[in-house]
Amino acid sequence: MALLLCLVGMTAALAHGCLHCHSNFSEKFSFYRHHVNLKSWWLGDIPVSGALLTDWSDDTVKELHLTIPAEITWEKLDQVARAVYQRMDQLYQGKMYFPGYFPNELRNIFREQVQLLQNAIIESRIDCQRHCGIFQYETISCSNCTNSHVVCFGYNCESSEQWKSAVQGLLNYINNWHKQDTSMSLVSPAFRCLESRRLDNLTLEDAVECFKKH
Q1: Are residues 120 and 137 in the same domain?
Q2: pTM of the entire structure?
Q3: Is residue 10 in some structural domain?
Q4: Are residues 50 and 122 in the same domain?
């Protein structure tokens, strides 16, 4: 279990989409779009396939369906992008396909890409629980390709001393955050279950219950 605290370090918006944020996306998909007319015996496949490729980024964002922000690490984005490019390159190596085959294969690759992105985004959040206390990792936003970093709280503490230190670190982080922006809703008087004077008696279950309520 991990508590997402904040998202900071935003930069200027560049584009929309997940794969669109990858450095090779423009070159790769420009090639795919310009060579789509050579991939099917049936002329009807060409506009359908072209539309799939043109709307790839926007459709990706629509299909993610995540309850957490769509933010992915650069490493995982690169892994997904390489997997997608490999599948696309293999598809384009073939000669002309029979009617309907090429756009169907594009849809299959698109769905596989969405699943890969979903898994990568969720795995990044789950990885937080392998740490004890405040942890930060660099990400890129799939909605606008901005650089950011996610700060989360991991519960994987091996001793009561580590747990006390982790909670104290959380309190310090919240206090510093509150000083920077007093409008942040996470900082609430109701977080008295995490006050320093009660750390000795604070258990993991207590903290989790506190976070759930607020």
Answers
A1: no
A2: 0.71
A3: no
A4: yes
Along the chain (214 residues), what's the average pLDDT of each consecutive run of 10 residues? 36 55 94 89 87 93 84 93 96 88 95 94 81 87 85 84 87 75 45 49 54 46
48 and 184 Cβ atoms separated by less than 8 Å: no
Q: Is 43 part of a structural domain of the chain?
A: yes
How many distinct structural domains can be found in the chain? 2
pLDDT confidence of residue 31: 95
pLDDT of residue 74: 92
pLDDT on residue 91: 93
**Do residues 166 and 94 both lie within one domain?**
no
Instruction: Give the model's pLDDT for residue 42.
Output: 81
Structural domain harbouring 166: 133-174+187-213
- Give residue 8's pLDDT: 31
- Which residues in 55-69 are b (16+ Cβ under 10 Å) and which e? ebbeebbeebeeeeb
Residue 53 lies in a domain: yes
Contact 196, 210 (CB under 8 A): no
